[in-house]
Amino acid sequence: MHKKIGFIGAGNMGTALMSGARKAFDADRFIFFDRNTDKRERISGQLGIRAADDAVEVARESGILFLMVKPQNYAEVIDQIKGELQEDHIVISVAPGVTGGWIRRQAGVNVRVVRVMPNTPSLIGAGMTGLAYEEGALSDEESDVIMQIFGSCGKVRRVDESLMDAVICASGSSPAFYYLFIDAIAKRCEELGMTREDAVFFAAQTAVGSGKMVLESDEAPAVLAERVCSKGGTTIEGVRSLQADELDSIVARAIDATYKRAVEMRKE
Ligand SMILES: NC(=O)c1ccc[n+]([C@@H]2O[C@H](COP(=O)([O-])OP(=O)(O)OC[C@H]3O[C@@H](n4cnc5c(N)ncnc54)[C@H](OP(=O)(O)O)[C@@H]3O)[C@@H](O)[C@H]2O)c1
Asked: How far apart are CA 9 and CA 34, in angstroms?
């Protein structure tokens, strides 16, 4: 695989991926374009990656092409580059709902498409990425390169394409839910006398530790929760209060609303 790895769009996610990918591959493997000159200059300077003059140049030079623009910009970008797209291109789609079929129709070429759902903790190397492609679509070398790039920003797992909207709920959007939970704990503990800074720090570090416990333990999350609850102790009182307020239903409704929007955004 000699062609370059190209990125179109160098915003939050594009920059995070390029920064991670630079740890795994030499700078000359990459080329990128963003329509903002200041971003091109800054990122080129920071990462040592060559900025192209336009998206067409990126498409021409790349074998693997990351489309790192917002969903509403996908049509215009594909329109710009479709003259360069060939059947052996691999297009990486990070936009919710943008399917391989839609990209192929827009491009008028039977490109290979990998659908990906990263999340914002990828910005600090602690991301979770779900990724889907058709069986046999990629060579081992191609899938290794793609896994390595997302792996350089956190954890990555392949799922069936039909599950991509569920992945949006599980990891794409859910960082916001955890932030709100941390914020809610911190707000109340601040009212109990902690400083804001301490309250956020204690709550956030506990979220990190609790997540690691779940990942590293053989026990189910609900069993771990039970283990924190000693009879007659403090935690069980809080857990009972959450159960009485139907935490499961509150979260289920949030997941359903997220899923519903993901379905509405499908471009098939
Ligand atoms: N951020 C997340 O948490 C997250 C999580 C999962 C997936 N995603 C997906 O990742 C994609 C990128 O998100 P983001 O947060 O990185 O967006 P972003 O910060 O807005 O970055 C997109 C960049 O692409 C540029 N751009 C737009 N159209 C272009 C074009 N035709 N040619 C060249 N550059 C163009 C934008 O320029 P302008 O600013 O001028 O428009 C911007 O600099 C989206 O599809 C999003 O759904 C994001």
From this structure: 5
